[in-house]
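S1.2 Input.
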Amino acid sequence: MSQISNLFLSIGKPVKDEYGRSFGRIISFATTPSGKFDAAFIELSDGRFTKQPMEHLVFNGADVTFISRIKSKANIFCDQIPFIWRKEQALKDLAEKKKIAPELYKELHNNFAAVLGQLRKDAQILVEETADEIALCEEELSSLSYGVLHLELDHEIGKINDEAYKSASALLQENIKRTTAEKNDLEATKTKLSNILLGDSAIPEQKPKEALRETKVYVEPVAEIPELPEPPVVVYVKEVGKAGI
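S1.3 Output.
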């Protein structure tokens, strides 16, 4: 009951993302018939409403933090995929030791393969979504850099006074810091997911060959640097007149 009371006290409280940016505020909660909290209704900063699963929110007293969907789903995949791999390997070991009937092994093996295949497919989609989000962060960082440049130029020529310059500069630097932190987190998430799909992280040592053959790694060739042409040789010819012959 105390936990329920604490959550209800969050109604009306602001919600920020992991990097301190304003996300919205808690308006209400959705609960299951048994009374379990299922989701939170949030008024976004632009006035729209959204319903977010409880696993995307972290409650710490009066502070409510929104965890991005990408990171939440990535954590699930990074737990589930290795777990299914281990169960598949354990099933294979039991079959080799003849501790389960061949028919039962085949049925369970097919079930595990189907679940693992779907997880891998969904995780690959998430990798691509993460790459898109990284690209957006890079675009935002580029825009912020131009913002800093123009602010410095306008301040240098006297169009902006010192007080306005300091305030604007602090805001720009704070946004650069937040966006850089988000980009770094997304890159770490993408790497972790990619490693899971490649079987390089938290996967049993004995990996089915079929799964490894599914993944192809493309390495972009490094272009050779062309040799610079030798400088031209200029020959000066002195014209000799007829009188000088």
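S1.4 Remarks. The two ends are 118 Å apart (CA to CA).
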